[in-house]
C-alpha cells in the first residue's frame, strides 16, 4: 500500500486530466478506474466513438449528395457496418491507450478496480485500502431513462447501445431532441435509417439561441430527420426485435404510437456516485444527485473534492477537464480557476452548431441592452465552395460598451470557429477588437469577423 498526495476516483476527462496535472505539479498521484480501459465515458462510449461514426457517415453523405456536383462521378460507397464499427473501436483504442501512455509518462499510478471511500483520507480498491491526503471524485454520469421505458441496450438503447447496434435499423425512434439524440440520430439517418425524433418541448436543443434552434431543425428536416414536437413519451413496449413508442401530444392529449426497430432514449444524463459510500461520509448531494462543492471543488467533507459530470454545470468533457486542472492547482497550493461564463458548447452534426456565453433570450430576461451582429455563410466564399452557405454567425455585444457577451454559430467548422470568440471573451474584448483583427482569406473565420463588423458600421459582404 502506497501513500499518495492525491487519489482521483474515475479516469474520464475530469479524472485523467486532473491526475496528469497533479503529477506535473509534483504531487504523488493515483487514479482509480473500474473499466478495463482509461478515458471514462468520453473516450469509451461518448465523445470519441460518436465523433468517429459522425465522421464516417458524413463522408457517405458527401459522396451521395455532393460528389457528383463537383464532377466526382461513380457509385456512392455502400455501408459495411461491421467495418465502420471496427474503425470506431480502433479510434477508441488509440485514445484510451494514449491515456495509459500519458499516465506512465507522468508517473500516475492506475489503481485498477472500483473505488470507495471508507473515510476521508482513505480509498478502498478491491481489498486494499490506500491512503491519500486528498481525494478527488470524478466518477462522471450515466444515462437517465424515463418511467415506463426499460432499456435492454439492444432494441431500447441508450447512447452506449446505439454506438454498437448489430445492424443499421430500418426505423429508429429517438426520444429527446438534445445533443445525443441529434448527433446519433444524424448518424443513422445518413446511414439510411428512417429516424423520427420525439421531443417533449416545442423546440430542439433546449437552452440554445432561438434562431439557431429554428435554423438547425429546418436543416435536419431537409436531411431527412422527422420530428414530433411537444410530445410526452408515455411508455415503450419492447418486443424481441421491434418496439412501439407510445406518446401523448401535449397540446391536445392525443395518444399516438410509433413503430421502431430501435428506440434510442436520449433524455439526459445523471451523476454517477454509486458505491462510493458518500452517505456514510456525510458528503452533501443536491436534489438532482450532484455532489455539492464550494468554489474550490471541495465537498462538504474536508479533503474530499469533486469535479466533472458528478457536480453541477454543463455535462461536457472540456468543463470536466478544466475543473480537473483547476482542482489540481488548488491542491498544489496554487490558484485554480474556471471561467464558467466562457464554456463553449458544440454539436457535431453537419453543419456543426456552437455557442458560448449569453443568448438573446437570457439577455432579454436580464433586461440588458445589447446589439446583434449577424453574418450569413452565404456571404463567405469558402463556405459556398463546399456547399455550406446555409447558416450564420451571430455575435451579441453590450449596446454601450461593445463588449462581447455571447456568440452562436451554425455552419461549417462552427466547433472550431467559436474558440476565437472564447479567447476574445476571456480578454474582455469588444466586437470591434475582433472586427479590427486581420483574418486570412478565404477562411470560414472571415464570417466571424464579418459578424463582428455587423455589430458596428456593418459587414462588407452582406
Ligand atoms: P466520465 O467521463 O463519465 O468518467 C467517469 C469514470 O469514472 C468512468 O470511466 C467510470 O468507469 C469511472 N468510475 C465511476 N465510479 C467509479 C468508482 N467507484 N471506482 C472507479 N472508477 C469509477 N462532451 C463533450 O464535451 N463533447 C462531446 O462531443 C461529447 N459527446 C458525448 C457523446 C455521448 C454519446 C455521451 C454519452 C457523452 C458525450 N459528452 C460529450 C459528455 C462527456 O462524455 C462527459 O461530459 C464527460 O465524459 C464527463 O467527464 P467526467 O470525467 O466527469 O466523467
Ligand atoms: P439533453 O439534456 O441534451 O437533451 C435531452 C432532451 O430530451 C431534451 O430536449 C428534453 O426536453 C428531452 N426529453 C426529456 N424527457 C422527455 C420525454 N419524456 N419525452 C420526450 N423528450 C424528452 O440530454 P442528452 O442528449 O441525453 O445528452 C446528455 C448530456 O451529454 C448533455 O448534457 C450533453 O451536454 C452531453 N453531450 C454532449 C455532446 C457534445 O458536447 N457534443 C454530445 C453528446 C452528449
Automatic annotation (TrEMBL):
Residues 343-452 form the Pyridine nucleotide-disulphide oxidoreductase dimerisation domain. Disulfide bonds join 42-47. Its cofactor is FAD. NAD(+) binds at residues 176-183, 199, 268. The active site is at 441 (proton acceptor). Residues 4-324 form the FAD/NAD(P)-binding domain. Its EC number is 1.8.1.4. GO terms for biological process: 2-oxoglutarate metabolic process. FAD binds at residues 51, 115, 139-141, 309, 315-318. Belongs to the class-I pyridine nucleotide-disulfide oxidoreductase family. The active site is a redox-active disulfide bond. This is Dihydrolipoyl dehydrogenase. It comes from Roseovarius litorisediminis.
